[in-house]
Write a structure and sequence with these properties.
Elements (H helix, E strand, L loop, with lengths): L11 E4 L2 E4 L36 E2 L5 E2 L7 H5 L15 E4 L6 H11 L5 E5 L5 H4 L5 H4 L7 E6 L10 H5 L4 H13 L6 E4 L15 H18 L4 E7 L24 E7 L8 H9 L4 H10 L4 E7 L11 H13 L4 E6 L23 H11 L2
Parallel strand pairs: 5-6, 5-12, 6-7, 7-8, 8-9, 9-10, 10-11, 11-12
Antiparallel strand pairs: 1-2, 3-4
Helix pairs in contact: 6-7, 8-9, 10-11
GO molecular function, one term: mannan endo-1,4-beta-mannosidase activity
Keywords: Glycosidase, Hydrolase
Family: Belongs to the glycosyl hydrolase 26 family.
């Protein structure tokens, strides 16, 4: 078993037995230009198509079937009914990433502080080589072996520094590695989990940034098909970075890189209170409604009949606000509650790393920027 990896704003990986933390700042460190405000009126959406029915149980290389217990089954829990007007309610999947360590104990500590157990935990894989990020990232699952909830795994499409490998991925040259990853999920009893495959591809510093949309889509499809070949229970969450897509990525619009409904089970966004931050509710609503915004992508998901998710969100006192913004927590909760019937899950992102978003709510160690007002609002809304 590898050493336990610590939490970071973005990519975490193991290098020659040593835990290496890399703060890529995907969507966090760089101020980005916001789009000109446009009028956007969505047509009346069709009913959301819920997650597909449970597929046949996958098998391990030894031939024995492996199923995910109901309390850990993403398909089972995402499909539960949720009434509009309340969140999390009895069936809402609300949680967090592991911080300061990517493990179940850190998630439990956060959820104990808020006063409500977490039903979802968001984590990451190794990112050193294709081998270590697929067959060699067993620690991702080992550190959540005792977590009775849905596991959400953020998985890149290429290793760190491997941008040049995207065309090879698009040609299927790494399909065997992806099949190995599907096998790994099954072997750890986490086949029925959510994978945020190639998440935040529209962020300017992403190692798997979609500089060529068709190449990125082909790589995503190869990876998805190969993972499903060995793990048919997996759910794929296609996730963008909120607020802006640079012109050199996806032609300046994230949805140009949508891989198609048959390759996506959930559509999601990472939505932080920065660049731009929202000093008022009107600002929050305006930013959410314009292209690359929270509501804008939610409406896209409805049109495609997909459940929606917010895999990362939080206050950013280190961003353009220059302070915590407790009202952002309140507005996010209102947004979640209003759309609960179509919300697959949401996970707050807790972080105290130097140079990071400093979004932690309940950690009190010296390295953390305090967000007491946000913590109070969060506990009151997401707690008991």
């Amino acid at each position: 078993m590898a050493s336990k990896p610590a939490s970071s704003r973005r990519s975490l990986w193991i290098a020659t037995g040593t835990v290496v933390l890399a703060l890529l700042g995907l969507g966090a460190a760089t101020a980005v230009q916001t789009r000109a405000e446009t009028n956007h009126t969505a047509p009346a959406p069709p009913p959301v198509t819920r997650v597909p029915a449970q597929p046949p149980a996958a098998s391990t290389p030894t031939g024995g079937p492996v199923t995910t217990p109901p309390e850990r089954s993403a398909r089972t829990l995402v499909a539960l009914p949720r009434a509009a007007g309340a969140w999390p309610g009895p069936n809402g999947l609300s949680g967090v990433n592991g911080d300061p360590v990517l493990d179940a104990a850190s998630v439990a500590q956060f959820c104990s502080a808020r006063g409500r157990a977490c039903r979802v935990a968001q984590t990451y894989t190794d990112r050193t080589t294709y081998e270590t990020m697929t067959s060699g990232t067993g620690w991702t699952f080992e550190y959540f072996a005792n977590f009775d909830g849905v596991l959400v795994i953020s998985q890149g499409l290429v290793p760190i520094g491997g941008e040049a490998a995207l065309p090879a991925c698009a040609r299927g040259e790494f399909d065997e590695s992806w099949r190995n990853f599907g096998n790994l999920m099954v072997q750890h009893g986490r086949g029925d989990s959510i994978v945020r495959l190639g998440w935040e591809f529209n962020e300017r510093t992403s190692p798997w940034g979609a500089t060529d949309a068709q190449t990125w889509i082909a790589c995503y499809r190869h990876a998805a098909d190969a993972i499903r070949a060995t793990n048919p229970a997996v759910l794929f969450d296609w996730t963008i970075n909120a607020h802006s897509t640079p012109r050199h990525l996806c032609g300046g619009l994230s949805t140009n890189c949508y891989p198609g409904d048959e390759y996506v089970d959930i559509i999601g966004i990472d939505n932080y209170d920065h660049y731009p931050w929202s000093p008022t509710k009107a600002d929050f609503d305006r930013v959410a409604a314009r292209p690359e915004g929270l509501t804008w992508l939610y409406e896209f998901a409805l049109r495609h009949g997909k459940p929606f998710a917010v895999g990362e969100w939080g206050v950013v006192p280190t961003g353009d606000a220059g302070k915590e913004n407790p009202e952002f927590v309140r507005w996010m909760h209102e947004w979640f509650a209003a759309r609960a019937p179509h919300l697959a899950y949401e996970a707050y992102f807790s972080n105290c790393d130097a140079g990071g978003v400093q979004s932690s709510l309940f950690r009190v160690d010296p390295r953390c920027t305090g967000n007491p007002g946000s913590a109070k609002v969060y506990r009151g809304l997401f707690g008991p």
